[in-house]
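Closing statement on the zinc ion sub-project.
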Amino acid sequence: MLDTLIKNAVVIPMTGEGEYMKNASVGIKDGKIAYLGHDAPEAERVIDADGNIVMPGLINAHAHTAMCVMRGYADDYALQDWLYKKVFPVEARLDEEAIVAGAVLGMAEMIASGTVSFSDMYFCQPAVAKEVERIGMKANLCNAVLALSEDYDPEKDRAVIETRKLIAEYGVKGRIRADASIHAEYTSPPEIWKLVHEWAKDAGAITQIHISETKTEHEGSYSRHGLSPAAAFDKYGILSTPALMAHGVWLEESDMELLAKRGASIAHCPVSNLKLGSGMADIAAMREAGVNVCLGTDGVCSNNSLDLFEEIKLSALLSKGEALDPTATPAYEALKMATVNGAKAQGREGETGMIAMGYDADIIMIDTHAPHMKPMYDPISAVVYSAHGSDVKMTMVEGRILYMNGEWLTMDVEDAIRRVEEHAVPIVLA
Ligand SMILES: [Zn+2]
């Protein structure tokens, strides 16, 4: 017998373009999808979806979740001022308690807006991992290596120590995974990239990297290496293992071809790129070249939310506007970036991102009863162009309900908010 049956749903399985099923049921056993069809097999628990949309949970492929403590703290600054005068000084003051509090607040926001899994680059990840474990989300966690000074010693770097600890404690296969990370081309020399790449190779880990986010960074790489950031990373063998690279706003055609050839993924972060005035990534061209493009929110300090529905809609709209072609990124492609492609980027292909037999039951339910969802000629279009994160009614990971009808079932949200306001905010404002 099934553990759970979700019945009377409009199911978007994300298994093929334009596919959806009306009056359908999804069955779950031992945390995995065990039934998909129009019957109602017996189950211990039955959830009546009442005509709501049921689809795979969303994947946020680039986040700095704990930066939630800086939500709205530094808006409308030029990028360099934002980073060097506002963000870095606060980050130097944040202690582990503040970082964990920010990460928990961010997870509450992600769960409530339909995200089931996130790729996160920040500090204190072994402590954050304990909270992910408790709350029940999926995460690929890393602490990015930066080596800006001449006397950089990896043995004394917190990022190196944390990465090793994460790899030892969680490995690279479970619900919580350790990723390796090079912050960006301009924040460390090739010897350090090679060092990080060695761990990634040994552990079988994905490497998270920021790439060609700004014009300054992209052009600067030519003076530093005589090559674009992507070509420079490739020269030192960094792309020979799976890489998840954020932004790619300034990628050239040859970079896209290279990333496609190496099987690297790009986490497109349109809200952050617009807010920081970095530019617009050409995701239609990337897709054309064969790059796996997924979506990320980036940190809340440059967004200011973790609601992936904003990225889904904006990614489609920007792509159309940039190409002067409304067919450039259709709704299904936008939704695929937030699910199927995100799963691939996280090394979770075949595990999550689809509602298909044997996949983990990482499922969300979206309300279709509100005025802005009526009428609904095409559920895929409704999710992409009409829905908001606040329309999410249920979020489930591996068959466990984390959020239902406005309630968080695995965490104390009031406590999370209190910890941020009482502990983290005074540090930010210090
Ligand atoms: Zn970032």
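The radius of gyration is 21 Å. With this model delivered, the sub-project is considered complete and its resources will be redirected to Aim 3.
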